[in-house]
């Protein structure tokens, strides 16, 4: 009994010594005050002073308590540092937006950068490689422009094919047989669209991949039978009406006079070849392509033009404004004398060949061929020439807002070389980014 009492007393003393420090620690923790409770934001009506857009309200200097509370709630905003006055105007300032400063204005300074693709050939018509930027000189309006960009890298093509369906039937058959070789001249990085024209133009497909299965299917739709012109008669016994009904000609278009002419002879209708409208339609589609593509119009035609709504000068100006070069394969009977005799035009007749004018004024090139084999080779030759050009770039000294025509003269400091480049351009607002 005595032993049990002593054991209980010892247990009580041991528990007091064990739980004593823990009780003291709990008492110390209870003595720590609680964190301050969050305060509600003061109502907007109680804040006096101007309100800055994007920065909230600014408290007056007299209310020190509200100023202290607002400084704890919103971080201080640092205004954007203005650019130094000595910085040139041609550079673009990119100031990162400051947190809490609201809307940030972005300022873009326009720079008149001009890009000129150049092809250089020797006396035999072969491309010349290996030239450096020191071999080129570019003059704009008789002023030497220092080169800022020089590249010999091949560029992807955005090429619009324009196929003449009003060719003679024998020439049209050769063009039909050669259309399958067009895709062989393109790469997977190229884009191609197909347009046709005779009496009016039509778009068979918008831009698709150069190696897509859609392109050969569309090119097969571009095939046509062509035309078989006959010898017209506007006088003599063969020009009269062959069939009469009740004393009148059944077809007023072939009777002497009346609706087709006058009382002495029949006016022979002119053939319609809307080449200008077809090139303009292709140029409008090309103007929407990204700037990294080289914009090319490839015309397969004999170059005849009559009956277009657009004039030749309007289409050339549109191409020069949108950096579009016109290339072509000249087929048919207009090959002989190309470049000299075709420049003479008889009044009141159609233009026998204006395709060489488009190529000369847009920086393109023209290939005159005969036969299916020659047409197929011209596709590869023209596409390779348009892709592998020297690319020159400079900053124009002219104003970017006048919109006037600027003459360009590209020279190569080597003898017996032919330089093919656009002779000028019109500045476009879409090029100023």
Describe what this molecule looks like in 3D.
The strands form five sheets. The protein has a six-stranded mixed β-sheet, sandwiched between helices. The protein has a four-stranded antiparallel β-sheet with strand order 6-15-3-17, with no helix packed on it. Strands 5-4-16-18 form a four-stranded antiparallel β-sheet. The protein contains eight helices and 18 strands. The chain is globular, with a radius of gyration of 40 Å. The longest helix has 29 residues. It is of the alpha+beta class and 433 residues long. The N terminus is likely disordered. Helix 3 packs across helix 8. 24% of the residues lie in helices and 21% in strands. Among the domains are: 97 residues, Immunoglobulin-like (Sandwich); 186 residues, von Willebrand factor, type A domain (Rossmann fold, 3-Layer(aba) Sandwich). A hairpin with a 2-residue loop joins strand 4 and strand 5.
Which secondary structure elements does this structure contain, and how are they paired or packed?
Layout: H1 2-30, E1 51-52, E2 56-57, H2 64-73, E3 113-121, E4 136-140, E5 143-145, E6 147-151, E7 157-164, H3 169-178, E8 191-198, E9 200-209, H4 214-221, E10 244-245, E11 248-249, H5 275-286, E12 294-301, H6 312-321, E13 324-330, H7 355-362, E14 366-368, H8 371-387, E15 390-395, E16 406-412, E17 418-420, E18 424-425
Parallel strand pairs: 7-8, 7-12, 12-13, 13-14
Antiparallel strand pairs: 1-2, 3-15, 3-17, 4-5, 4-16, 6-15, 8-9, 10-11, 16-18
Helix pairs in contact: 3-8, 5-6
């Amino acid at each position: 009994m005595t032993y049990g009492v002593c054991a209980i007393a010892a247990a009580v003393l041991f528990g007091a010594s064990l739980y004593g420090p823990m009780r003291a620690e709990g008492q110390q923790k209870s003595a720590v005050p609680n964190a301050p409770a969050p305060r509600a934001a003061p109502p907007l009506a109680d804040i006096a002073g101007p309100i800055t857009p994007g920065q909230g309200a600014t408290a007056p200097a007299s209310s020190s308590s509200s100023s202290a509370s607002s400084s704890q709630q919103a971080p201080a905003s640092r205004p954007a540092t203005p650019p130094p006055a000595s910085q040139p105007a041609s550079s673009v300032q990119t100031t990162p937006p400051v947190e809490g400063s609201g809307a940030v204005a972005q300022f873009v300074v326009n720079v008149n950068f001009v890009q000129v693709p150049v092809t250089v050939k020797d006396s035999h018509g072969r491309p010349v490689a290996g030239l450096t930027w020191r071999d080129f000189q570019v003059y704009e309006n008789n002023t030497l422009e220092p080169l800022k960009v020089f590249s010999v890298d091949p560029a992807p093509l955005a090429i619009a094919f324009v196929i003449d369906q009003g060719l003679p039937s024998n020439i049209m058959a050769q063009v039909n047989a050669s259309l399958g070789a067009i895709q062989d001249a393109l790469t997977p990085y190229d884009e191609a669209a197909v347009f046709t024209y005779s009496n009016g133009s039509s778009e068979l497909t918008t831009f698709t991949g150069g190696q897509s299965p859609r392109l050969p299917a569309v090119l097969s739709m571009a095939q046509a039978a062509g035309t078989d012109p006959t010898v017209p008669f506007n006088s003599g016994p063969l020009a009269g009406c062959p069939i009469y009904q009740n004393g009148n000609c059944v077809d007023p278009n072939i009777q002497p006079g009346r609706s087709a002419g006058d009382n002495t002879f029949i006016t022979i209708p002119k053939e319609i070849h809307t080449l200008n409208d077809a090139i303009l339609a292709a140029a409008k589609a090309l103007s929407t392509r990204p700037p990294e593509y080289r914009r090319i119009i490839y015309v397969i035609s004999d170059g005849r033009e009559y009956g277009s709504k657009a004039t030749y000068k309007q289409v050339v100006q549109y191409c020069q404004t949108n950096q579009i070069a016109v290339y072509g394969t000249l087929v048919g009977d207009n090959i002989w004398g190309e470049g000299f005799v075709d420049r003479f035009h008889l009044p009141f007749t159609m233009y026998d060949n204006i395709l060489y004018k488009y190529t000369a004024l847009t920086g393109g090139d023209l290939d005159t061929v005969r036969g299916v084999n020659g047409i197929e080779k011209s596709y590869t030759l023209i596409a390779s020439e348009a892709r592998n050009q020297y690319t020159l770039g400079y900053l124009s000294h002219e104003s970017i807002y006048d919109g006037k025509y600027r003459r360009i003269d590209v020279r190569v400091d080597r003898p017996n070389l032919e330089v093919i480049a656009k002779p000028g351009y019109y500045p476009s607002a879409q090029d100023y980014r």
